[in-house]
Every structure is written in C-alpha cells, then in structure tokens.
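Quick start: load a record and inspect it. Here is CYTH domain-containing protein:
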Amino acid sequence: MRLDGVEMKVSLDGDQTAEAVRVLGLPDLAPWKIYFVEDVTTGLCVATPLLDEHLILRARQKTSGKDDVTVKLRPGRRSQLTDAWLDTGKTEDGEFKIEEDWAADRRTLAISLTAERPRGLVAAVVSGDRTVNALFSADQERLIEQCAGIAVNVATLTVLPAVSAIRWPKFAVPRPGGPALDVRAERWTVGDLDFLELSIVEEDVAAAPAAQAALLAFVEGKGLVPSTAEAKTTQVMRALVARSAC
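Running the structure step on this input writes:
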C-alpha cells in the first residue's frame, strides 16, 4: 500500500519558541507570508467547515522564487482517492504525496498536492486583484472535486489574514547508531500565537520510530519542553477565522 514517507514533528510554543530560536542559534531571516483559505460566514466566529471536514487550503508568499499552494486532506483516507490519484506522483506543475504525520503519539495520514504558482499571484489574490480560485491549479481543483468528500465552490472562499513564517534551511543533527537527522525549523507567528516546529522526513517507515525518538531526545537535550497542545494549524486557523468573521 502506497506510503511516500513519514514526517515527524515536534512543536514548541509560548516562551519556549524564543528560547528554542536562541539555543539552536537560528539566524534572523526575512519571513514568508502564509495564507489559509476557509469558508467564512460573518457572525460564525468559530466555524471552520473545511478544516472540520479535514480539508486544508494553504498559500505561501515567499521572499524569493515562485509562490506555492497546497491542497491537503488531513486526516485523510486512501479510500477517498480514485485509482488515478493513488497512482499520481508528479503532476504538470506540482507533486502529490501520501504521507503519515507524526506528532508525539498522534499519527495521521496526510494527502497533499502542492503546486508552484507564479510569483506575485498570492499577493494579487490577497489584494483583490485576482479571484480566490486563481490560487489553485486545475489539478488541485480536480482533487478537491473528486476526493474532498464535500462540495466546495472555491470562488466563494475567504483568504484569511497572513501568518508570518520563517523557514530556515535544514541542519544536521548527529545521532548515535544512525544517520544524522536532517532537521527543518519553521516559526509561525500570528497575534499572541508563536510556534516553532522542528521536523524530519523518513522514507523508510520501519526506521521512523527510532528517528522520532532521536528528534525528541535532541529537543529535550537542549532543555526545551515540547508543546502538548492541539496542532498549530488548528489553533492558527481558529484564531484567524475569529478575526475575520466577528
């Protein structure tokens, strides 16, 4: 059964975020802007109907190079995919993945299609110069229509306020008895929310538990305390919807 890999994450929040940036020696970088897209209705201050149906739509406005947009089904099910999608890898303008997401003892299947988009497109949509559906490639709209399990008129959706995101280059973390971990650090800041996520990807599923344990040991060895709160995407989207709908 197809599985392209396992992404393992350790999240830090609150005061631990700034402390992690300090102890890891992460340099100042220009932030990206991340925009989530939801079905927002005025007055429904806590409603996240797409997120509740496990459909996540995300656009990234980068500081250099092309923008990108991701359609993600998480938690996803292989049974919601057609045979054609189960056989899809690279598309004309993107990449389709079926991975597991591990965070502490939470394990979910994540199905995603990420497509590069022209530089400046995300900003044009945010400013209102382009419509929301311009964000998505034809393949992404097809994935939503065929596999999301809910009816979505993409053109009627709302782009939520920006999340400030700093994404550092990967760095190697040695570990005894195994290959070095290739760690990605990414910080999200919006309002009072401030997260730092450390992540690794392991293509060999059998090796994933040991890699996850090594990542956690690295974090705790730095004197950092991982967050036990709900996923950062959920917290961020609820806060942004409340800001947009109320």
